[in-house]
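Hi again,

Forgot to attach this to my earlier email, sorry! This is the prediction with zinc ion bound. I've pasted everything inline since the attachment limit keeps bouncing my files.
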Amino acid sequence: MIEAQTKVCQNCKSEFVIEPDDFGFYKKIKVPPPTWCPDCRQQRRMTWRNDYNFFIRKCDLCGQRILSVYSSDKPMPVYCPKCWWSDKWDAKEFKKDVDVNKPFFPQLKTLLNSVPALAILNDDGIASVNCQYSNYFALGKNCYMVINSWKVEECMYSVCLVGAKNTVDSAVILAGGEHLYHAINVDASSRCRYAFNSAGLLDCLYCYDCRNCSDCFMSIGLRGRKYYFKNKQYSKEEYENIVKSYSLQTWTGSERARKEFEEFILQYPRKCANIINSVNCSGDYLVNSKNAKHCYITVRVENSKYFERGDTIRDSYDCLSGGEQELCYESINPDNSYGALFTSYCHKDNEVLYSDSCQSSEHLLGCVGLKSSKYCILNKQYTKEEYEKITAQLIEKMKERGEYGEFMPASLSPFCYNESVAQDEYPLTKEMVMFRGLSWQESFTKTEGREDVSEIPDDINEVSADIIDKTLACFVCKRNYRIIEGELRFYRQNQVPVPRVCFFCRFAKLYKERGPVHLWNRVCQCSGQTSSNGAYENTTSHAHGENPCLAGFETSYAPDRPEIVYCEACYNSEIV
Ligand SMILES: [Zn+2]
Ligand SMILES: [Zn+2]
Ligand SMILES: [Zn+2]
Ligand SMILES: [Zn+2]
Ligand SMILES: [Zn+2]
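Structure tokens for the complex follow:
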């Protein structure tokens, strides 16, 4: 029986634990145990993914002006999706001879710098219509700046949506919804704004963990209620007058409501984690899973760990985004793959290692942009026997050099640190990024300084149609932004005021409100009759009686957070 081992992270020098089950997994996929801690590994993977920093450039094959996640100063050519997926070019023409005795990553870097990259992960013009400005995106209609989403219509400025319609500034909508504004982890709901961790809502405003409710405003933990304000029942007329009194169609009114709501729900306990119908799991926003640890925004996950954003995952560790996959490790988007190790955007692959953007392939090592290929190293074709012999030698040498078993270094990533999602989760200053030998993107911060409209009307009904022709300036970061036509239509239809902040700041807020991708060990803050800070008085007696609960749990609420965090049992006792 192998025992848990405490190791020191070779990157940040903090301690981390490798559990007995983890050793079993590493053995199964024949990789040495990691030398970096889970956070440093996640940060390194995240440097390989740019969700929403887009650049206008030209396609290096057809010459058209396109939108891309790659700025025009990147070393490799960039092709628009139509060109990249076509047979007008062959990634094997960029092949390199591998030298097993030389460090592997510089050899891979040379290939990464020469093979054409796919401008954006978006099927616009193929299976999607009018969704050009979206990334990691499929099967949509009329969407703008929607990331990591599919089967969506008329959505804008959102992340992780499945089946949503007419939704703006929202994240983690996995089972549909429509007319949602600023909703996070909300399912099967309609005409709601500022809704969090809720399901089955209709016409609800500023609600947290409410289920099957309609016409509720500024409430938390309600089940099957109607005409509730601040968790109290009102008549229909009273309720309507209260909502009206907030003037939510104005910026000042909606900001006042938001602040009041945030203060109001702070007096109530929160559940330590959003885990539904799952056994032996930890993480947040986890549904229908078994033995899934440190998993976030994941559905149907089994025997997996350190996963963010996934659906139908078996025996996989350390992945960022993915679906229908098995035995994958340290990979980004290894969708429909088996045995993808240390890969980025490799789909429908079988036993592919250290590769980027390879599709429908098997037995590849260090390849970039290959489609339907087999037995290749650095894009060069070998016979099965040659491939097996060279990969065995190469892996042995890589192990000796401490290269094998680690994800591709951040220094190989095509993205500057502040273009990547690492900057959202692990923000660094330019100086810190340079100190680490990574690159920093300057060009997208240069859209400041213009302002056509110094004052946007407070009330959405007083905003004139020509606002879509104007350049606005974000009052938080000064960056310029615009309101697009569909967006204005949404605000008017849903009586939402025009935002005073740019979408970069709004995205940052969404990521922040969704919570960190990290767990802390904490103890239930129920002290018997009240919460331990005295702010909340329990409404029923709990199984632990008048003594403090003391149940331990893992939660994404950091210990210094102001929220009252209860264990699942105490929370369920309070929420009827
Ligand atoms: Zn570390
Ligand atoms: Zn093209
Ligand atoms: Zn801003
Ligand atoms: Zn408790
Ligand atoms: Zn309790």
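The CA atoms of residues 445 and 479 lie 7 Å apart. The two ends are 44 Å apart (CA to CA).

That should be everything now.

G.
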